[in-house]
């Protein structure tokens, strides 16, 4: 994940950890969501744990980032929405990870195996059902939909960092759409150039054996326009001659079909295949 995306994820987690619930029930719910033991690698998470009454576990070195929180439980079926939100925020800060990459986002919770279906069911209760599975003896609850991820993060209190995440998602989507349009236009242009080349070869072949001069007036007018503007599309030629596009198409198809026939020497000069593109 690029550094800018990691910075965005860090900012989002710091923003969520800085939320200080005013209600005592929300504080208990968030404590329950964080769990009894918390490994706080980020300073913002460590400060949150201390605010909620956690204390550092005994030991030195890396163990000083491990905290013990007071016992707390949440009666999910009876809990009001604000307590559910606080519990989910604690779950994300303690067990959640967010990965960003071009064109997609991935959020997952890593839990004890028996807790994964419980968490998945609770997320389904708020209208955001995830997928879940067991991986190497751990439960993994996952979203891969950017819409579900942004809805969840907004629900648990993300705002400024979430807006940046949504803006990046929109920008990536627009870049992808622009690339598709450019690729389609490039392909159309390549086909038009190839068709114009075949048409000019066919025109030269018919002119060489004198058959061009006996073609209908419309065909000769289209041929002259194609020669003068080989890069023009069928629609542009039609507008120039005040004809329907289909009339221009038929005229050039006629020229290519005639040039394909080995009649009077024409076939010896031209070996293309009419396609009608242009």
Residues in helices, as a percent range: 55-70%
Low-confidence stretches: 264-278
**How many structural domains in the coordinates?**
2
Biggest sheet, spatial arrangement of strands? 4-5-7-6
- The tally of helices reads 11
Q: Main beta sheet, described?
A: 4 strands, antiparallel
The CATH architecture name of the largest domain reads: Roll
Q: Would you tell me the structural class of the helices and strands?
A: alpha+beta
**Percent of residues in beta strands?**
5-15%
The third-level CATH topology of the largest domain is: Endonuclease I-creI
Q: Give helix and strand order, one letter per element, not per position.
A: HHEHEEHEEHEEHHHHHH
CATH superfamily grouping of the largest domain: Homing endonucleases
How would you state the average pLDDT, rounded?
84
Radius of gyration (Å):
34 Å
- Tertiary shape: rod-shaped
- Intertermini distance: 44 Å
* CATH first level of the largest domain: Alpha Beta
Q: Please report the total strand number as a whole number.
A: 7
């Amino acid at each position: 994940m690029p550094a800018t995306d990691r910075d965005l994820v860090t900012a989002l987690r710091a923003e969520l950890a800085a939320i200080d619930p005013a209600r005592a029930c929300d504080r208990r719910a968030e404590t329950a969501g964080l769990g009894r033991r918390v490994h706080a690698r980020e300073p913002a998470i460590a400060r949150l744990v201390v605010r909620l009454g956690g204390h550092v576990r005994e030991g030195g070195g890396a163990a000083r980032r491990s905290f013990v929180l007071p016992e707390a439980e949440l009666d999910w079926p009876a809990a009001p929405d604000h307590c559910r939100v606080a519990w989910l925020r604690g779950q994300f800060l303690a067990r959640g990870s967010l990965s960003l990459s071009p064109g997609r986002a991935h959020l997952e919770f890593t839990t004890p195996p028996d807790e994964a279906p419980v968490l998945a069911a609770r997320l389904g209760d708020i209208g955001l059902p995830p997928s879940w599975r067991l991986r190497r003896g751990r439960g993994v609850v996952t979203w891969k939909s950017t819409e579900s991820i942004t809805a969840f993060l907004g629900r648990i209190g993300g705002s400024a960092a979430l807006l940046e995440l949504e803006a990046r998602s929109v920008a990536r989507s627009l870049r992808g759409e622009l690339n598709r349009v450019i690729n389609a236009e490039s392909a159309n242009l390549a086909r038009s150039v190839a068709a114009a080349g075949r048409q000019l070869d066919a025109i030269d072949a018919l002119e060489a054996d004198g058959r061009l001069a006996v073609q209908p007036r419309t065909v000769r007018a289209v041929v002259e326009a194609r020669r003068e503007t080989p890069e023009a599309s069928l629609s542009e030629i039609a507008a120039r001659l005040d004809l329907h596009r289909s009339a221009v198409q038929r005229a050039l198809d006629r020229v290519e079909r005639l040039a394909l026939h080995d009649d009077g020497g024409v076939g010896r000069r031209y070996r293309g295949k009419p396609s009608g593109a242009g």
